[in-house]
Write a sequence for this structure.
DNA sequence: CGCAAGGGCGCACGGCGTGCGCTACGGTGA
DNA sequence: TCACCGTAGCGCACGCCGTGCGCCCTTGCG
């Protein structure tokens, strides 16, 4: 990583091609994403990011206005990883469920994003976010919702997914900082939890109950709430009376 | 605010009373909350907070381990503002709806919290969070859910509320930074939005449609999703067949 | 072959969180 | 009454951070 001998002859000097200016926005965003995934949000500084790219921190500012803008770009990159399947056999629930799972997976794969969503929200106009929203909207309209309600329905599902994933991501970040596996961390936390929940009988009962595998338990919880939300939305499409 | 003449005689020197040690954890948390509400997350530094309390930054560390811990305390304080009503006439939906509205209101009243939830989540053991969870759990159990499912149901509703409120809070933070009212900001943004959504017919239609009052529209969206979630949960209590 | 454009960088500024060790105050036992 | 000691408050300093400024060198163009 350290720079080589500074003495370089004219012949060995690396020639920088202007067509590939050694630094590009795409490269910077990719490196930032990699660093964030590997070391978390607080590890991302313009200096360390520059070092990863063999560049000075200030060089980045030729390609990115500031750190906040860089984060917006990285977030949009993550949204680009979310898949929206086509509806098969008119089964829109299956499609929405798959899309929700893909979103949750993307957010958990990049758990640092939970801290960033509170700043950017989804209000900005990144191309991947727009494309994603358009496709999801199409999905709900195909399911039978009129445009205005499709928007509401999409918002409801996404709010649930984001709420779940945000909470999970925060938890996973805490676990990761502890340097242990999720199960180890839980086992280690359990005595304190049992003690702390003593004044609260219902929480205490839950804390005492056996939990099974932590990861699948989280997945089940996510699926449960999503099912309920979809049940409620389905009822809007097929009035029972 | 500036310190007075440094020359003080023995007689005029202010006497510090040990019974009220000039600084207390509660005071610090209260001042931090005030500062966060007034100026946002990035305005909170240990130095400025100290200045607000006529104290040096490092003095705060006698009462608080570090800034992260301080934030946890403030978050718990906010959760203390959430009200959980009793169930009247067996109408648990009304109670849950009121509780959800109270939660949303608290989160929007302190919009900076959206950025912090991604770090702390709800996994920590603050007394107000515990009390709140216990009472909400009781609410769902009274509604008829068996304990394990009551936990899931509560988690689902809270995830939705947090997801909505987080997104709204991020939006409100952006608006606040612009120094304009929400409506002004929307009107100003609309041309850019219309332009950006051109390649996406469905988004474009939504962007072009008249919106009515922004704040009530947000409230309606929140109510819509919550209703759907509660519909889905209700179905679990009263199997149709 | 000279020149303008612009990418990369060294430097510096002001601000951050926080560890360390000193000071002085006030309650306590002799 | 007085010496003592636990502890709140603070000044200083360290190593980070984001980022503005102005210089230099490369490069493609006329």
């Amino acid at each position: 990583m350290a720079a080589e001998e500074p003495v370089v002859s004219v012949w060995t000097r690396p020639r920088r091609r202007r067509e590939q200016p050694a630094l590009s926005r795409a490269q910077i965003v990719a490196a930032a994403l990699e660093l964030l995934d590997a070391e978390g949000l607080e590890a991302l500084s313009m200096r360390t990011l520059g070092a990863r790219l063999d560049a000075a921190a200030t060089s980045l500012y030729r390609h990115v206005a500031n750190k906040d803008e860089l984060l917006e770009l990285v977030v949009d990159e993550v949204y680009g990883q979310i898949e929206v399947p086509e509806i098969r056999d008119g089964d829109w629930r299956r499609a929405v469920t798959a899309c929700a799972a893909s979103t949750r997976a993307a957010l958990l794969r990049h758990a640092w994003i939970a801290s960033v969503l509170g700043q950017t929200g989804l209000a900005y106009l990144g191309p991947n976010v727009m494309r994603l929203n358009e496709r999801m909207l199409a999905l709900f309209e195909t399911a039978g919702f009129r445009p205005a309600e499709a928007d509401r329905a999409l918002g409801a599902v996404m709010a649930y997914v984001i709420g779940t994933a945000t909470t999970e991501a925060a938890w996973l970040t805490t676990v990761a900082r502890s340097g242990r596996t999720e199960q180890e961390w839980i086992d280690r936390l359990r005595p304190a939890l049992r003690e702390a929940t003593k004044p609260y009988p219902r929480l205490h009962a839950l804390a005492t109950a056996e939990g099974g595998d932590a990861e699948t338990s989280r997945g089940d919880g996510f699926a449960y709430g999503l099912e309920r939300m979809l049940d409620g939305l389905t009822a809007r499409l097929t009035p029972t009376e």
User: Anything to note?
Assistant: Chain A is about 65% helix and 0% strand. Chain A touches chain B through 66 residues (CB under 8 Å). The two ends of chain A are 70 Å apart (CA to CA). Residues 15-18, 45-47, 57-58, 61, 66-67 of chain A lie near DNA strand D (CB under 10 Å from a C1').
